Fold SDR family oxidoreductase.
Amino acid sequence: MIPKYPYYGYETRCRQVPITFPPQHQDVQPGLEYLMNPLPISDNPEYKGSGKLAGKIAIITGGDSGIGRAIAIGFAKEGADMAIVYLYERVDAEATKQMVEHYGRRCLLIEGDLRNSAFSEEVVRRTLECYGKLDILILNQGVQFPQESLLGISDEQLEDTYRTNIFPHFYMTRASLPYLKPGSAIVSTASVTAYAGAPLLVDYSSTKGAVVSFTRSLSLQLVSKGIRVNAVAPGPIWTPLIVSSYSAEYVKTFGLETPMKRAGQPFELAPTYIYLASDDSSFVTGQVLHVNGGVMTET
């Protein structure tokens, strides 16, 4: 069933979005969207596709929910078929698949752990078996474990954060590159924390800084092959990662620190990924686009 979203709070051009959220917490990351209250808003019904990604095949890591789900819906509207990679969130992944199919596109679900390099090879192999080619790679997986002190970051947490947030960028890109052609695009999810910092997220922020450096360096390596590499740096966005990493008390004021005085919704990010994946951005590579509610950053 396609979720029905509540309309209240701050009014955008297309709809109303929540300003604050009820206290809530989930114990396991990266979290389950169908348990959230309110549900994140992944689809903008006013957005009409124009074939910008017609005939394209995309892989979207972390595509089951949150930002990844919004990307999948936006890509479907623009004519792309896709493979969605997720860790364990099968109910969320099935819901995203239904949304993609609602817009007339195909969606292959692949469950597994991207911290394992061999799984990236499997993801690409299964995508090619299903669709016969690959045009777009969206690297969107992530975890975060807030700690008030660096002394609280264990070796296990540090390794988990890096193995989830940056290692798969290398694994997935390495597995995909032999099949990408001129005109292909790689788009990563960075974060405002890579630029503004975050006192509770020292390890997470540093992995997102690595994503920025990965994007800039890889773009220089691949520009001669006609493959563009860019990233999006979101600010606070209402996703399962928030309720599975922060306390219930913290969630009540999530996003209010931005100049816009609210958190963003996933649907507000999707057009940026569409832009970077499509020929609209044919003269754009090595860049990070900021969608963060007005936070000033040094790029």
Summary: The chain has a mean pLDDT of 95.
